[in-house]
Amino acid sequence: MAYLLGYDLTEYDIDIIDCLTNYRGVKPYHLAVMKYGVNYTNSQEKTIYKYLRKLLDQKLLAKYKLQDGSEGSMYYLTSKGYELAKDLFNIEEGKKGEGWINEDGCTSYGDFPYELFSPPLEQAPHHLSSIDFLFKLRSINTTFIEHRINLYSAVTYGNSENKFRFRPDAEIRLENNRIYAIEIDRGSENHEQLCKKFRTYRHYYETAKQSGLNVRHAGIIFIVEDKRKKHGMKRRWKNICAALFKEMGDYHKDVNLIMTTVSDTSETILFEINRKNYEQRFINKLSTFLKKKGNQDVNLYLINDPDNDYKQIITTNMAGNNSFYVTVYITSQTFEANVYSKFMNVYRQINAIKNQEAVKGLEFKGFRKATIYGNEIPYLINDIGPYELDEEFNNVFREFNDNVQYYRVDDVLV
């Protein structure tokens, strides 16, 4: 036996305690993924149970049998186990910590009261869904995706008279410090509750801006259950998307809304990692094509958005001797709101486009949309009308559905 701080602990035990300190509550298969990788064996999972029993016997762990048809149990640290973890990992008293987890573990622990640290038993399925998502990130072999749970993503802001609480379910951080808020959506929130969620985001961003801080997320990713793919995913997306455009003000232009399932997590995050590269390679390829054409009937423009540094790629294409089309080039996830924001930017500037020298005096025939995607063709909302958005939004949604061409990224950028 190896005694440490009065307990029978091996390195294996400490690894389990570390995982529970990082994620608050997990199921045994999460621990198996952490210890052995996503392709763990049945024998390795049985080993996990052996060590869990040992820690349960020492009153360092507790388990909660899941309710409402959910299988298995959630394991978490007892108050005694959490106090031991603070000693094991040298968590300073009163330390806030940032909680980012990378390939080396947690970079900065926080010291929380046990009542706040312990997982929410009444919301265990919701909590475990967020853990499912975070552990799914480990299947991305090209890089480790930094992430943190809601204990650390939560922010209290305002003043002594008016305090507000902002709390995404988790956050991930990609290169160039691009942080994405994660929202676990189990379909229980109605439209008004979704609107309230986005009002909270907008209020947080506005308050931070007034304080001179830049805390906007690169995106907000809604994670839905896998069964949604067969039952109501498109309907749910329309509901969420409408709430965003109703409540986020102009923040919808540079805080992208994405929806995906737990099983599609890897593909979704990989697309976000490579998005800028995809777009730049496409610009280069398009420019080469235009040079070969001699720019005789196609003209390339990069429209600057005055509110951010994004440049929208468009071309004007001759439709006949006296008319032209505008082709808008967009990169999109399967469910993504930013395609409408980008199209709106072009839609609002059509008069300036008509005055370009190459097409001046010609009849504008309409828009074409060239959409570059990953594994699945993007879903387009054909009618946002039932949610009573501003007429401009309604026009953009209707217009975007016409003359759309899809190009799989692997086929376009070979």
Set down the secondary structure blueprint.
Elements: E1 3-4, E2 7-8, H1 11-23, E3 25-26, H2 28-36, H3 42-57, E4 61-65, E5 73-77, H4 79-88, E6 101-102, E7 105-106, H5 114-117, H6 124-136, E8 146-149, H7 150-153, E9 155-158, E10 163-166, E11 170-174, E12 178-185, H8 191-210, E13 219-224, H9 233-247, E14 256-261, H10 265-293, E15 298-304, E16 311-320, E17 323-332, H11 338-348, H12 350-354, E18 363-373, H13 391-400, E19 404-408, H14 409-412
Parallel strand pairs: 12-13, 13-14, 17-18, 18-19
Antiparallel strand pairs: 1-2, 3-5, 4-5, 6-7, 8-11, 9-10, 11-12, 15-16, 16-17
Helix pairs in contact: 1-4, 2-3, 8-9, 11-13
Overall helicity: 25-40%
- Tell me the radius of gyration: 25 Å
Q: What distance separates the N and C termini?
A: 58 Å
SSE class? alpha+beta
Biggest beta sheet summary: 5 strands, mixed
Oligomer: single chain
User: In what order do the strands lie side by side in the largest sheet?
Assistant: 8-11-12-13-14
Instruction: Name the poorly predicted regions.
Output: none
| Overall pLDDT level | 89
How many DSSP helices?
A: 14
Q: Name the beta content range.
A: 15-25%
Coarse morphology: elongated
The number of distinct β-strands equals: 19
Explain how this protein is built.
The protein is α+β, with helices and mostly antiparallel strands and 414 residues long. Helices cover 39% and strands 24% of the residues. The strands form 6 sheets. A 5-stranded mixed beta sheet has the order 8-11-12-13-14, sandwiched between helices. Strand 12 (178-185), helix 8 (191-210) and strand 13 (219-224) form a beta-alpha-beta unit. Helix 2 crosses helix 3 (42-57) and helix 8 (191-210) packs parallel to helix 9. The radius of gyration is 25 Å and the shape is elongated. It starts with a strand and ends with a helix.
